[in-house]
């Protein structure tokens, strides 16, 4: 079968979505650290600082999940660009869907349509 543009497009969409997710996770870590520092610098009531620290620690898993899912989407995008292991490429498209809906949906559709091109 003649190679088409479909796996390349899917790979690029996966990689871009993965990068967006990773940047979002890193932004979330920086934002929570800055908010905590601002409240400590302003000498806010210790009860407020404790509440903020509890809130930040309860949602601190979200950035790590975003980074993990972003890495998985990027790996799937690389497999799509190489036209290797279709299941990994499709998995990357699904992770891309989790991170950034428009790119992920397009990537899932294009990866599914180009199954015959993978080895």
Keywords:
mainly alpha; about 0% strand; about 120 residues
Molecular structure report:
This protein has 119 residues and is mainly alpha-helical. It has one domain (6-114). Helices cover 82% and strands 0% of the residues. It contains 5 helices and no strands. The chain has helices at residues 6-41, 46-58, 61-82, 86-99, 101-113. The radius of gyration is 19 Å and the shape is rod-shaped. The model has no long low-confidence stretch (mean pLDDT 87).
The helix/strand series, from N terminus to C terminus, equals HHHHH
* Total of helices: 5
How much of the sequence lies in strands comes to: under 5%
Q: Report the major sheet.
A: none
Spans of at least 5 consecutive residues whose pLDDT stays below 50 are: none
The computed structural class is mainly alpha
Helices, strands, pairings?
Layout: H1 6-41, H2 46-58, H3 61-82, H4 86-99, H5 101-113
Offer a quick outline of the entry.
With 119 residues, the chain is an all-alpha fold. It is 82% helix and 0% strand.
């Amino acid at each position: 079968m003649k190679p088409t543009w479909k796996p390349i497009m899917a790979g690029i969409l996966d990689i871009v979505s993965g990068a967006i997710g990773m940047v979002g996770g890193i932004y979330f870590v920086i934002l929570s650290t800055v908010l905590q520092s601002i409240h400590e610098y302003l000498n806010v009531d210790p009860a407020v600082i404790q509440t903020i620290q509890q809130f930040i620690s309860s949602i601190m898993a979200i950035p790590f999940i975003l980074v993990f899912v972003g890495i998985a989407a990027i790996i799937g995008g690389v497999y799509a660009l190489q036209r290797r292991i279709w299941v990994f490429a499709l998995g990357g498209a699904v992770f891309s869907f989790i991170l950034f809906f428009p790119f992920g949906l397009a990537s899932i559709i294009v990866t599914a349509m180009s199954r015959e091109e993978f080895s």
